[in-house]
Write a structure and sequence with these properties.
4-stranded mixed sheet; 18 helices; ornithine aminotransferase; alpha/beta; 39% helix; 497 residues; EC 2.6.1.13; binds pyridoxal-5'-phosphate
């Protein structure tokens, strides 16, 4: 142990002083990474990085499989898996080996030339998922943008939609990423405020509402190129559609000649217990978008899958990405998919998910005033808390306490906590999380409530700026919303009447 490390262990003030010195302009990045505490790292990031997420204050320094360590050596169980990008577990050896081996040969060609890894990946991926062709990209949002462009192109070339009149239908409460095209479909004020004007040619429909979708297709069907949806709405809080919904969507899309576009970026690659969540209803979408776990938590890799009649509507030069289909990503993606197949991660997700939900349901029985609902499929799960039971405490506060007890989970909206661990997780580790949650509810929550007494927290979702609805993502069964189209910054949205 060197002198600096010994001093840092002994005295937090010395550590802070040292960090300040190290963070001065003369220090190297390596020095900073080796010497700073979590708090210093967080400050450092806050000073130099723009905002994007609302992070839980924990710093990842090392990870393996389901575990993460912070710079102080504290160990955590990862129940977010980087939003389902780490289905295979952190730093899976097979994926790392593929990365290193390929890095020693070739990392980038750009598709201005061919390389000898992408075709292998393309063949493996298309065979595994049963589609003719793949269009490779990098991030999830790029994958979605690609699918939207593909649908428009197909709409004009194959369906005969008049020029520039193509419409894409998407769902209220959806999350497909953060690009302008994608947020044009969002009902999330945080994602949309201040970023208009939005993309024209959009229509919204309630997720899970077959009758409303049918109405839209009846009224606008001639111009609708695609219906984009998540088979389970992940970021909205793990919202499952009614049984049979995906099959009905398939039937409607076929009847009205609309491309059924499944965003399986979060639900795909075994997360829900099948290779694709659409497999639960035996449905084959026309277009599938993959991302996240396709890169095994190592590199950003996304892909759009479709058959030739759709995919070949995009001609050479009409779409691309410098890094899309790069050999390094291709090697990593092959290994990532092989791990999912070889380790039967889909089967594991079904088994572990059931145990997890059962344990949480027991907890709900013990605390019905606080736990409103436990839901999910495979290892994509959420626990929704009662706003009343929480009083001024938020799901974020609960996640902070979970972190103190070694469990990393992330809230979505004010009252929902998502649990999506790596699919390699073991029974004891799942139980550890449930135990920690129980302790937070029984020991920490009463204290937090007391501390926050008198402070006012709004747990009600604010009305969507664009459609005016208060609760866009959850609807009591049986309630139907009459459709009315209105124009807002050249967008069509459905309004609840
Ligand atoms: C369903 C879905 N689509 C798209 C995205 C966007 O992916 P990325 O953050 O890689 O752009 C996400 C990210 O959470 C997602 O959950």
């Amino acid at each position: 142990m060197n002198n600096m490390t010994m001093a840092m262990r002994r005295r937090p003030e010395i550590l802070r002083m040292l960090c300040r010195t190290i963070l001065s302009a003369s220090s190297s990045s390596e020095q900073i990474a080796k010497s700073c505490s979590s708090d210093e790292m967080i400050k450092y990031e806050q000073e130099y990085s723009a905002h994007n997420y609302h992070p839980i204050p924990v710093v990842f320094s090392k990870a393996k499989d389901v575990h993460v360590w912070d710079p102080e050596g504290r160990k955590y169980l990862d129940f977010l898996s980087a939003y389902s990008a780490v289905n295979q577990g952190h730093r899976h050896q097979k994926i790392l080996d593929a990365l290193v081996e390929q890095a020693q040969q070739l990392t980038l060609s750009s598709r201005a030339f061919y390389n000898d890894k992408f075709p292998v990946f393309a063949k493996y991926l298309t065979n595994l998922f049963g589609y003719d062709m793949v269009l490779p990209m990098n991030t999830g949002a790029e994958g979605v943008e690609t699918a939207l462009k593909l649908a428009r192109k197909w709409g004009y070339e194959k369906k005969g939609i008049p020029k520039n009149e193509g419409i894409i239908v998407s769902c209220c409460g959806c999350f497909h990423g953060r690009t302008l095209g994608v947020i044009s479909m969002s009902c999330d004020n945080e994602a949309t405020r201040g970023f208009g004007p939005f993309l024209p040619g959009q229509l919204k429909v309630d997720f899970g509402d077959v009758a409303a979708l049918k109405n839209i297709f009846e009224v606008h069907g001639d111009k609708v190129a695609g219906f984009l949806f998540e088979p389970i709405q992940g970021e909205a809080g793990v919202i499952l559609p009614p049984e049979g919904y995906i099959q009905s969507v398939r039937e409607l899309c076929s009847k009205y000649n609309v491309l059924m576009i499944a965003d399986e970026i979060q639900t795909g690659i075994a997360r829900t217990g099948k290779l694709l969540a659409c497999d639960w209803e035996g449905v084959r979408p026309d277009v599938v978008i993959l991302g996240k776990a396709l890169g095994g938590g190592v590199l950003p890799v996304s892909a759009v899958l479709a058959d030739k009649d759709v995919m070949l509507c995009i001609k050479p030069g009409e779409h691309g990405s410098t890094f899309g289909g790069n050999p390094l990503a291709s090697a990593v993606a092959i290994a990532s998919l092989e791990v999912v197949v070889e380790e039967k991660l889909a089967e594991r997700a079904v088994e572990m998910g059931q145990v997890f939900r059962n344990q949480f349901l027991d907890l709900q029985n013990a605390h019905p005033d606080i736990i409103k609902e436990v839901r999910g499929r495979g290892l994509l799960n959420a626990v929704e808390l009662n706003a009343k039971g929480l009083s001024s405490v938020s799901a974020f506060d609960i996640c902070q306490q979970l972190k103190e007890r070694g469990i990393l989970a992330k809230p979505t909206h004010d009252t929902i906590i998502k649990f999506s661990p790596p699919l390699t997780i073991r029974l004891e580790e799942l139980s550890e999380a449930v135990k920690a949650f129980k302790e937070v509810l029984e020991h920490d929550l009463p204290k937090m409530r007391q501390q926050l007494q008198g402070s006012v927290t709004e747990h009600q979702p604010s009305a969507c700026d664009r459609c005016g609805r208060h609760e866009y993502n959850r609807r009591p069964a049986g309630i139907r919303y009459q459709q009315q189209i209105f124009e807002e910054e050249s967008n069509c949205f459905l309004e609840n009447i």
